[in-house]
Amino acid sequence: MSMFDSDNEVTLTQQQRQRRTNRIVTEDDEDDSEEGEEVGFGNDSDDDDDEEDEDEDEEEARKVAEGFIVDDDEEQEDDEDDTMPTRRKKKRRAEYYDEELDEEDLELLEENTGLKLRNEPELKRLKRGRQLDDQTRTKTSMDIFSDEEGEDEQQAAAEPAPYRRRDYDDMGDFIADEDEDDLDQLIGDRRRDEVGGFDDGRKAGKDILDMLPEGISEDVLMDMYDIFGDGGDYEYALYPDDQMELEEDRHEPQLADIFEPSELAERMLTEEDEKIRNIDVPERLQMRYEGLHKKFTEPSMEEIQQEGIWVARQLGPRQEHAVSSEEFLTAVTYVVGFFTKEFLEVPYIKDHRRDFFTSIDATTGATVEILSEQDLWEIYDLDFKYHGLQQRKKTLRDFLTRYDIDDEYVREAESKVDRTEDVTDILDYVNCKFATKISAAQAQKKGPKRPVVKSFAALMANTPAASILPLFGLTARQFGENWLESKSHFTEDAKVAPLEEAEASTTEQFPSAERVLKGARMVLAQEMALDMQVRKAARRDYEANGVINVRPTEKGFTAIDDLHALRPFKYVSDKPLASFKNGEFLALLKGEADGLLTVSVGMYERDAWVKSMGDSYLSDGTSTVADEWNHERGLVLQQAVDDHLAPLMEKHIRERLRVAAQETVCKQAAQQLYAKVNTGPFRTSESRHGQPRVIAVSNGDGDNKSPTMAVMLSPRGKVKDQLILGNLRDARELVKLEQFIHERRPHVVGVAGFNAQVRHVIKYLTGIIQNINHARDSSQHAIELVVVDDEAARLYKNSKRAHEEFPDSPEVMRYAIALARRLQNPLLEYTGLGRDLLTIRFQPYQHLVNEDILLAHLERSLISVVNDMGIDINAAVHSPHIASALPYICGLGPRKAHSILKKVEVMGELDSRNSLVMDGMTAANTFVNCASFIRIRDVDGADILDDTRIHPEDYELARKMAGDALEIDEDEMDDFSSKVAVVTRVVKEYPERLNDLILDDYAAVLREQYNAPKRQILEHIKLELQGPYHDRRARYAMPTMDQVFSMVTGETNETLRVSFIVPAKVMALRGRVANCVLDSGLDGIISYDYATDDHGAGNVDEVLSVGQTLNCKVLHIDREKFVVELSSRASDTQPGSDLRLRRLPLDPYYDENAEKKVLAEKEKQKRKKDRANRKINHPLFRPMQHKEAEDYLATRPVGDLVIRPSSKGTKHIAITWKVAEGVYQHINVIEEKPNAYSAPTRFLIGDQAFEDLDELIVTYVEAIAQKVDDLISHPKFQLGGPQALDDYLDSLTRANPKKSEYGFCLKEGHPGYFDLAFKLNQKSNVTRWPIKVLPDGYRMQKTAYPNVDDLINGFKRLQQSEAKKRYHQQQQQQQQQQRSSRPPGRPSSSQHGGPPPQHHAPPPHHMPPPPHGGYGPPPQHHGSYPPPPQYAHAMRPPPHHGMPPPPLHHHHRGPPPPPHQNYPPYPPQHQVYPPRHH
User: How far apart are CA 1227 and CA 359, in angstroms?
Assistant: First the structure.
């Protein structure tokens, strides 16, 4: 019978409590007369010196002690008639014993058993605990959920699950003490009964027993009871219905009748909670199996070894230590046994079982840690997963048995199950392979039926088409063996081609050869995908070489901007699975769930992977027939992958990555919390051995109405004094605060606030503390000022716990108390938060993890540190603040901890750890887990070992070590008091003598005698005796400047950085400086130089105003003074200028090329859509693209135009006009609009603006068309392009070699441009100058000309200018040659003081003829020319005053026109000009 099979389960703890309530013994008359004393177990006499030597035979003592168990009936009579309550002095516990055990009985017991039953408290408790073993319990409020009431019923015996202490726990004859032996015996007895509940027996109905004959054995009675019951099942038939209803209505009120179920669950008063309290298994071990009906039975050694092998295999890849595989496996197996067999928790194993997962280096003697504390938690989790796997395997075995499935391949696969996926593979295979058998079996049963996979193979099996399947070669199983295990099953090719074989297998269902082959491929692909080894091989490859690809959805493309959290993963390609390190895969899944991303799983180089699969399936044949069959086999593989394996593997990989990411996030969050709580209190030289005196100060919201409050805490965490002040700007309030701090002399003053306004308090306190420290005496310590992290205080100040602790204190005072406590003991500020821990941000992705899973990992950090520090149980009774840590003690939990606290509270005080089990406060296994972590402090007469980390099971070893250190013989330590005195002396006076002990020799003796390692335990004991409960936490470190800045302002490097653009509100204007405040409350300063781009002298009130909110650029951050220098200049605050700084770094596998392609395609589609939707109210508008516009104008006259949408966006339109046959110019026009939905107000082409399209057409397009027509009409214009013009110039210069010639043609590739080409003579090259046509003329060489004649004259002047430059260069060269040829030594006239030489005469007014061959083109335009310059009007060059050179020869149709001084005005404007026709 398991512990869950009855609601009447009770523990030994409850039995003892109930019996003790019903049996109060009397004392001697002398004891009765002592007022204020508590009832004790026996009298405190001085007879210890008269006792004889005790017998150390534990078995003999146990047998004798069991003889004093009182019969139930006698005990009840004694309880009713002969008991009365008495009281004894303070510091004494209430003890109970049977009245029949008088003084003589006790003395006789001592003589025969060697046990001291009267004088030592522990042994009195031990005796009492044994008396209570088989007594029945009475009904109390703790039994309110019991089904049977009103009588002393007993439960059926539970299924035995013996729990025995290991040999290494029993010190035996090596170091023995009577009280410890009896405690060990009691713990052993309890362990044997701990798991299945305690046997209360089962009582048959009294009437039935009276009717039975005498002499019937108990076994027969129990069988009869099981068959016939006790007669109460049909008792209702003896009474009228109304009477039975009345009796049913008279049931006792239950808690469920008073409280709502939710209230009961919140208070942990449900039946399930009561079961958890009663079962002697650590509460956390029970809770992780909640709802799974776990039976905590003792596993066999074989089961432990099998689990150890599995856990070691899972943990092995994570191991970083270089240890042997055998050593590692042994350590893991031991730890698995501690969890599953002994029900020990991680803190206990870490401290008291270290010998089993550490080793000693033979060379250095140093301890080598095989498993770390983190590894123990990993094993703890893997143990849970293993039992889940075992449950799945059991379900599979039951399924196979139920449907009588006995298949050799299935049995083989079942024996190799190592993961839950393997179980799923077998079930899928069986459901498909044995679908007919399962369906037939289900048809004969009622109720829900398991869905059966209907395979295509079943449909094809009974047709002739199935005959082609074997011709493909290997079966799915053979292929799986080849692929997974590299076996050598070879494929044999058929002699006939696939189509021929298929043609011979056609049927009505498969009428053609193609259909037959297609069906065969479907069958084989499905069989492959269902094969267990094929799936296992696919999982292996996907886990090793799988990749993740991410793409945005249509919604995500817009929603995921540059500052979105998913921006780094918007386009990710081929990201390996191993590259997911920090839980980011959870963010991808969240983005996918929100419709922002699509996440797909693939294989790196998938084609190569599929090809490698073919090596295990295709044949090696080289014939044509073999190639055809291999082609069919390749199609089978491709179909198996695409239709079956790939979707299955994607699901597997996604779940695998999700679980791994979840574990990573939880572990990282737990590490962050561990770093916070594993910090000691603030310490000074004076308070280095204890907690400091602390004053905490806070101004709350920091506004003018908020008071400033200070609170003083004693080193024990008690509130000693409080102070409420007004605004600290008042000097009188500052004096009060300074006086408060000066009189209380704290070690440290902590400060924090709700917002950045607390920086003013920090400033005031800095001055106050400096004054106090400056005036202090040399004997007084300096006071420190610390800014406190208030994340826990913010949660505490308005919590239910805070209101219960300090109901009369205001919110800011409760906040200040939490700040002070944080400096004294950071750990306790987090243990009391409960589920509020989840509101603190430890990891960026923690909000994506299940809260219960995250909380369990966070609690592990608290468990580790709480058990490192221990809990003073007596202090916890009186302090809810300390009691909040008790549930994290090893073996306990909220239910068991609350139960223990209540019992200690009733007792008044706990003066010994052994009392936990002796007085029935906890059962044996729970005691083993928690004992060394519960501290007994400041109790008169308490054993000093009860305030160490030494476990009670090792007390005798510790006492022996202490005695050996002081060289005291064991004979001198023959009683409890002397042992305690020796240990106390070693701890307080001679701890260094423990270093003289040779612990290796101790360990060797223990190992040889009990075959159990104890070396680490001995070291552990030595350290504790040298420094009981030494603080293992990291030392408190003063916060850095950056940390203080973040705590005060809430700003981090991610939210505030130099060059960030942040909003700021102007609060005051003072001359050339503006004072601002940021959203975080931080002060900002804008000087006039950075207030505007106008650098004229002035004040900031000329450009800024109070109350104005504006965007500012961060120039500098003074973290010490909490001030930010800002700039509000428009040039510094351009939108998006800080985007580069704020943008998150892209993932290493971010695919920018894919993003660019998508962006280009999106832009193209957008432009296309905009063009399609663009409407312009004009008769010449056509919804065309440029190519369509050219095709439309091809049949139109030269000069015609169309207005069309532009590909550059909605702010642009395009005008396409026909320049000449086959030549079209596209003019980009920009529309100026107030907004996207209004009509344009102006049209811009370059720097020219037009009021409407008609003006643009007339004054720009048609004007250009006219100028083009003028140039085309010139006789020097040549059709046919540049080549035709070159031929024309060559022909002219050949006719007259010394004559210069020029001409015009259209510029290729540049509609609206012409080329002016010229040759100065026959031998010179052709030079080209571009000409741009403008509405009011032409531009050449950066000069504008109004008409063709001016253009030609300008060309000539440019040639003259070039000739003139060359003439001057020649003259200078000649002069230089003349100077160099002058005879040396001949001084110039200037050297002799003569008149200066005359200047050369000016050149003649006429220019000499150009040199032979002409001057050539301008030097900057040899050969080709640069792109046309931007259009710009320029003044005509001034006329030359000298004689112009001879003009180039050209032909005029008349005399040259006079030079134009003024350009003609534009033609008059008309509304619409129709296109011109030539």
Answer: 86
Q: What is the dihedral of CA 307, 313, 318, 320, to 10 degrees?
A: 100
- The SS3 assignment for 1078 reads strand
pLDDT tens column, 1294-1341: 888 888 889 999 988 888 899 999 888 888 888 889 999 999 899 998
Q: What pLDDT score does 926 carry?
A: 93
- Give pTM, 2 decimals: 0.70
pLDDT at 426 over 80: yes
Q: Which helix (H) or strand (E) covers residue 1201, if one does?
A: strand 1201-1205
DSSP β-bridge partners for residue 1201: 1217
pLDDT tens digits, residue range 1366-1417? Answer: 788 888 888 888 777 665 554 444 444 444 444 444 444 333 444 444 434 4
- Reported in sequence order, the residue ranges of 771-823 that DSSP labels E, i.e. its strands, are 784-787
pLDDT interval class at 223 (50, 70, 90): low
Contacts of 340 (CB under 8 A, 6+ apart): 299, 303, 304, 307, 383
Residue type, 1041: M
Gap between the Cα atoms of 653 and 588, Å rounded: 14
Question: What's the CA gap between 1044 and 321, in Å, rounded?
Answer: 38
Task: Measure the CA–CA gap between 958 and 979, rounded to whole angstroms.
Answer: 10
Residues 6+ apart with CB under 8 A from 804: 880
Separation of alpha carbons 535 and 428, rounded Å: 11
Per the listing, tokens 């699901």 go with 651
DSSP 495-526: SS-HHHHHHTT--SSS-SHHHHHHHHHHHHHH
Q: Are 636 and 528 in contact (CB under 8 A)?
A: yes
The torsion of the CA quartet 1105, 1106, 1111, 1112, rounded to 10 degrees, works out to 90
Q: What percent of the chain has pLDDT over 90?
A: 41
Q: What are the φ and ψ backbone dihedral angles of 1125, each rounded to 5 degrees?
A: -90, 135
Q: How many CB atoms lie within 10 A of CB 614?
A: 14
Alpha helices in 136-270 (DSSP H): 178-193, 206-211, 218-228, 241-249, 255-258, 261-266
Q: Is 686 helix (H, G, I), strand (E, B) or coil?
A: coil
Q: Has residue 825 got a pLDDT over 60? A: yes
Cα 630 from Cα 472, distance rounded (Å): 9
Spatial CB neighbours of 1453, under 8 Å, sequence gap ≥ 6: 1275
CB atoms within 10 A of CB 947: 21
Both tokens of 1109, joined, read 């909110």
Q: Contact at 8 Å (CB) between 1099 and 1083?
A: no
Q: What is the pLDDT of residue 555?
A: 93
What tokens appear for 841 in the block?
Answer: 């941000």
Q: Are 630 and 619 in contact (CB under 8 A)?
A: yes
Q: Which helix (H) or strand (E) holds 1244?
A: strand 1242-1245
Rounded CA separation 865/130 (Å): 36
Q: Which contiguous run of DSSP H or E holds residue 355?
A: none
What is the helix (H) or strand (E) element at residue 1443, kind and residue range? none
The residue type of 683 is: R
Q: How far is CA 309 from CA 303, 831, 1175, in A?
A: 10, 36, 76
718-752: per-residue pLDDT in tens?
899 999 998 888 889 999 999 999 999 999 999 99
The most confident of the ranges 73-82, 83-92, 312-321, 1269-1278 is: 1269-1278
| Strand order across the beta sheet in which 1343-1345 lies | 1301-1306, 1313-1319, 1327-1334, 1337-1340, 1343-1345
Cα dist. 1007→83, 527, 1020, 1187 in Å? 50, 58, 17, 96
Confirm if 584 and 1163 have CB atoms less than 8 A apart.
Answer: no
pLDDT tens for 1183-1196 read: 888 888 989 999 99
